[in-house]
Amino acid sequence: DTGVSQNPRHKITKRGQNVTFRCDPISEHNRLYWYRQTLGQGPEFLTYFQNEAQLEKSRLLSDRFSAERPKGSFSTLEIQRTEQGDSAMYLCASSLETGQGGRNEQFFGPGTRLTVL
Amino acid sequence: AQSVTQLDSHVSVSEGTPVLLRCNYSSSYSPSLFWYVQHPNKGLQLLLKYTSAATLVKGINGFEAEFKKSETSFHLTKPSAHMSDAAEYFCVVSDRNSGNTPLVFGKGTRLSVIA
């Protein structure tokens, strides 16, 4: 399968614990995005990378959140000291940007569902 | 700032009848507009996109949408609903000229198809 993959698919944790999610984009895609989707809402942008550079972060991304894409391929999203309000679906998407404008056709992974007890 | 408003949180149609999911957008720039579909326990899938070419855009599975700048609308239609169309649909906007803005999603419209 050559789509975007995310692991784990589900994570249940206790409040205060740290969690880390992984996203593997489509191999030739240079951009990688993280979104968060809560129940009954559309996905909300968190951050994105162009290759290994993190170019934009949403104000939703508090200091407890950190994302990396060290080699410009897979990415990790870590949440420290989780809170119940962090419970959501975390979605990863990737795209191939060729510098010809915001075509932004993003391909989404299946998501990681986080439940904080 | 960009935003989209999906005018209906839930639409219910009978199988074989037309589908209309309404979306209005707000953008300071030349927008790209998309419709994504999300089936339960599956990833978001792109249905169609508008990026400045023809204003009537055809997508997968018989869906189409028309970009109307004067009405700031991008409604999604399908002539005849199938049971498999039951899902959550998201209208999405991004800034076409910037090249780097993330997608801004609406809150979604849940489509139910009744046999």
What is the quaternary state of this protein?
heterodimer
Q: Roughly how many Å apart are the termini of chain B?
A: 41 Å
The amount of helix of chain B comes to under 10%
Structural class by sheet pairing and helices of chain B? mainly beta
Major β-sheet annotation of chain B: 6 strands, mixed
Radius of gyration of chain A: 14 Å
What does the overall shape of chain B look like? globular
Q: Report the β-strand fraction of chain B as a percent range.
A: over 45%
Taking all residues together, what is the mean pLDDT of chain A? Answer: 92
Number of strands of chain A: 11
Gyration radius over CA of chain B: 14 Å
The helix count of chain B comes to 0
Q: Which residues of chain B form runs of ≥5 with pLDDT under 50? A: none
Distance between the termini of chain A: 33 Å
What does this structure look like?
The complex is a heterodimer of chains A (117) and B (115). Chain A has 117 residues and is mainly β. Chain A has strands at 5-7, 10-13, 19-24, 31-37, 44-50, 53-57, 65-68, 75-79, 88-95, 107-108, 112-116. Helix content of chain A is 0%, strand content 48%. In chain A, the strands form 2 sheets. In chain A, strands 2, 4, 5, 6, 9, 10 and 11 form a 7-stranded mixed β-sheet that branches. In chain A, strands 1-3-8-7 form a 4-stranded antiparallel β-sheet, with no helix packed on it. In chain A, strand 5 (44-50) and strand 6 form a beta hairpin. Chain B has 115 residues and is mostly beta strands. Chain B has no helices and 12 strands. Chain B is globular and about 45 Å long. The interface between A and B is medium-sized, with 31 and 27 residues.
